[in-house]
Design brief:
Blueprint (H helix, E strand, L loop, with lengths): L1 E2 L13 H10 L4 E8 L4 H19 L2 E8 L7 H10 L4 E5 L11 H6 L5 E3 L6 H9 L3 E5 L8 H11 L3 E4 L11 H10 L6 H14 L3
Parallel strand pairs: 1-2, 2-3, 3-4, 4-5, 5-6, 6-7
Helix pairs in contact: 1-2, 5-6
Bound molecules: zinc ion (2 copies).
Length: about 220
């Protein structure tokens, strides 16, 4: 299994990177990305530390670990600038905290994020068809999430992505160990998203394609 959206103590997750990664490996993960929330105040603190520990964990725990970020509540017109700064510091997986219906994410975040050179738009909420088409054009994957609250629009996102030919990935947005991916979460989330269970493999392949392009 691969999961490209998780949080540690470096933002609002409850576990150290080492514990999160080891637990993920124990649960059968082959690859994980550590994607803590960052903005202009924290990106330069978080990224080098996540890169250092990711390398150590990958070398010692037989799991592929990718250092990433989830750019969060950055003013939409500045997302592209933030993406550049995160990439310059070595972040491999670039996610943006999309316009979930569970929060007050700044309007137009989806629209600007999709054009900012990111890998995944997380929990895009009521994303417009125009932006789904733009995501396809820019090779940005849209996220189907197992996370409560953010998952309210999974079906809407999935159906529009299928109609437009945009790529989907399945992530957990784990903040606690019990959020990590397992068979029941996979089945429930796919069902809730209106997707056939086989579609899990397609989404996993999309995630592997993202990480393969980073090596
Ligand atoms: Zn988020
Ligand atoms: Zn998140």
């Amino acid at each position: 299994m691969i999961d490209l959206h998780t949080h540690t103590l470096f933002s609002d997750g409850v576990l150290l990177p080492s514990e999160l990664v080891y637990r993920a490996k124990f649960n059968g993960y082959k690859a994980i990305a550590l994607t803590d929330h960052v903005d202009y105040s924290t990106y330069d603190y978080v990224i080098p530390r996540i890169i250092e520990v990711s390398k150590i964990l990958q070398d010692n725990y037989e799991i592929n670990v990718f250092a990433g970020v989830e750019i969060t509540y950055v003013p939409p017109k500045l997302i592209k600038d933030m993406v550049g700064k995160c990439k310059n510091l070595g972040a491999k997986i670039i996610i943006v905290h999309g316009e979930t219906v569970a929060e007050t994410v700044p309007p137009q975040t989806n629209h600007y994020a999709i054009q900012a050179g990111i890998d995944i738009l997380a929990h895009p909420g009521h994303i417009t068809k125009e932006d789904v088409l733009l995501a396809k054009e820019n090779n940005v994957c849209l996220e189907i999430t197992t996370r409560a609250g953010h998952n309210a629009t999974n079906k809407e996102v999935a159906m529009c992505a299928l109609e437009c030919g945009a790529k989907l990935v399945l992530n957990t947005d784990s903040h606690e160990p019990q959020n990590l991916l397992d068979k029941i979460k996979i089945e429930n989330t796919l069902k809730q998203s209106g997707l056939n269970l086989d579609y899990f493999n397609i989404m996993q392949q999309n995630s592997y394609t993202i990480v393969a392009s980073k090596k």
